[in-house]
Structure formats: C-alpha cells, structure tokens
Design brief:
By secondary structure, this protein is mainly alpha-helical. The chain is built from two helices and no strands.
Length: 69
C-alpha cells in the first residue's frame, strides 16, 4: 500500500472504532490493524526524515539523495 492509502485506512479504522455499534472482537481486530499500519507509517516517515537530513547536510555540494523503498 502507499503512504496515502495507509493514512486513509487508519482514518477509516478510527471512525469504525468510534462507532458505538462495533463489536469488541471487531474493535480488537481493527486496533491491531491500525497499530500495524501506524508502525509501517512511522518507519516510512523516519526514512523520509533521514533522506531530508542527508540532503540538508553540511555541504550542499556533497548532498546525497537516498531513494525511499
């Protein structure tokens, strides 16, 4: 999935968890999915931050851009 798709899915999960008609079992499954997505997104953001830090290094002539995977 893409970063944007994962964000959208977390928003859907949040709405479902806030709904009063969500069962306990479904809530637990949604929570687990949301946590997995959140960890993946956190990793993607950390990699992006690292790439930006490389680009903004001390000497712009020596800046390296590391592609995200």
């Amino acid at each position: 999935m893409s970063f944007e798709t994962d964000i959208s899915r977390i928003e859907e999960i949040t709405q479902k968890l806030n709904a009063s008609d969500t069962s306990l079992e479904e809530s637990i499954a949604l929570f687990e999915e949301g946590m997995r997505l959140a960890k993946a997104l956190e990793k993607t953001l950390a990699e992006a931050k690292r790439s930006v830090e490389i680009v903004l290094g001390d000497d712009p002539r020596e800046a390296e851009i590391t592609p995200l995977q």
